[in-house]
Amino acid sequence: MKSLAWNRMDEASRREALARPAQARADELRGGVERIIAIVREGGDTALRELSAKYDRCALEAIEVDESEFAAAEAALDSVLKAAIREAAARIDLFHRAAAPQPVAVDTAIGVRVERILRPISRVGLYVPAGSAPLPSTALMLGVPARIAGCHDVVLCSPARADGRCDEAVLYAARLTGVHKVFKLGGAQAIAAMAYGTASVPKCDKLFGPGNAWVTEAKLQVSSDPDGAAIDMPAGPSEVLVIADADANPVFVAADLLSQAEHGPDSQVILLSPSADLLARVAAEVERQCAALPRADVARQALAQSRLILVESLAQAVEVSNRYAPEHLILQVAEPRALLDRIDSAGSIFLGQWTPESVGDYCSGSNHVLPTYGHARSYSGVSVASFQKQISVQEVSADGLRQIGPCTATLAAAEQLEAHRRAVTLRLEALA
Ligand SMILES: NC(=O)c1ccc[n+]([C@@H]2O[C@H](COP(=O)([O-])OP(=O)(O)OC[C@H]3O[C@@H](n4cnc5c(N)ncnc54)[C@H](O)[C@@H]3O)[C@@H](O)[C@H]2O)c1
Ligand SMILES: N[C@H](CO)Cc1c[nH]c[nH+]1
Ligand SMILES: [Zn+2]
């Protein structure tokens, strides 16, 4: 990890220190993903098989997971793992139901009722990563809110292994949450299939889920095409920013940094502290813990583009963090709630030394599909609302129109939209 001191850096160095790693490959990615999307649109299921052979090194017969594969997955899974998946699903369900938007009805004047009603997005496509590690927890994070929202057709794609099968735990989690169809597809080709549809894969209205740089770029491209599909947000390579004070436990801080560094070579982790001593102790601890990790190679690549930054105060750490807008923000300080009010951009926040980021990844109940690359400045993580449309409804009585009609007519006249004005005045005349 590179060691830096915020107050000794000029603006260009600060910008470079907070730049995300994958951005440097943006042009190469854009062209590659454009080609994959075009190939899928042109070649449909045949192209999907060819792309799976090329990128996932698997020979697919059926693209869709059938009943026998679901049954075999359930039978093969360890009962302790199945219980943990059910336990996590229950807590995710509890939080997401409690946080779900509610219908609203308000009388904004006598005889003027305005409502907000909720409707599920009909056809949704979920992406569950499995390139370097299959993530059954992501199937829960997407499947649970889709079920609560009441989406009619829920399709899930996840890359197959070399044996042509999907990860058993991903299949179990998908079934548990009521996903209707699962396809053995990964990367940009999975996103293209769900956005445009093929003979096997139904076209979806909105796509959800995290993924590597190819998946994220494909989501962005299909969302800018009117024939494509909407997306939840850009949820790319995982990242974490930790703010730690001088008394933070370096063992815990290092463990949290490594937990996101091990996701992939494009991940990035940042530690901000006003204590040079703490930064040095965490650096040593990261080295020590990393050496013992099975994914040490992956973590080291992520650490090469990660930073330890000395700040002058916790207040400055908050300013830097808001500027970076991390996917995950951990406040390993004595009084984390004292900083919370000043945080304005982060996907998910973890308070205090007993709240590792991992609990949010799996089973505290919050959602782990979160905006990366600084998109936390304007996007939120996945929730039930992401799977719903909020529709407004209004009903005005004759008395209500007498109340608000003149206001409408005045504003319409000011905008020189005479037909708008008359839609009101003709009725007011009929009421006179
Ligand atoms: N932001 C979030 O909420 C969140 C949540 C979970 C995971 N993640 C991130 O998701 C990512 C998962 O990535 P992953 O790679 O393990 O799995 P993945 O399923 O996202 O990607 C694997 C697919 O990438 C495609 N691919 C690989 N190399 C390619 C190439 N050279 N050209 C074209 N396509 C290629 C393949 O089709 C393969 O199926 C990680 O970066 C992780 O940090 C983010
Ligand atoms: N940290 C990831 C989100 O960036 C989510 C995840 C799934 N499994 C483990 N972690
Ligand atoms: Zn994680």
Structure description:
It is an enzyme of class 1 (oxidoreductase). NAD(+) binds at residues 127, 189, 212. Keywords: Amino-acid biosynthesis, Histidine biosynthesis, Metal-binding, NAD, Oxidoreductase, Zinc. The protein is 47% helix and 16% strand. With 432 residues, the protein is of the alpha/beta class. The strands form three sheets. Strands 1-11-10-9-12-13 form a six-stranded parallel beta sheet, with helices on both faces. Strands 6-5-4-7-8 form a five-stranded parallel beta sheet, sandwiched between helices. A three-stranded antiparallel beta sheet has the order 2-3-14. Bound molecules: nicotinamide-adenine-dinucleotide, L-histidinol (HSO) and zinc ion. Residues 135, 137-138, 238, 327, 361, 368 line the site of L-histidinol.
Key features?
16 helices; Rossmann fold; 3 domains; 47% helix; alpha/beta; 16% strand; binds L-histidinol; binds nicotinamide-adenine-dinucleotide; binds zinc ion; 6-stranded parallel sheet; 432 residues; single chain; 5-stranded parallel sheet; 14 strands
What's the level 1 CATH class of the largest domain? Alpha Beta
Order of helices and strands: EHHHHEEEHEHEHEHEEHEHHEHEHEHEHH
Rg result: 25 Å
Main beta sheet: 6 strands, parallel
Q: Per CATH, which architecture of the largest domain?
A: 3-Layer(aba) Sandwich
Indicate the mean pLDDT: 96
CATH superfamily of the largest domain: Nitrogenase molybdenum iron protein domain
Sequence stretches where pLDDT stays below 50 over 5 or more residues? none
Number of strands: 14
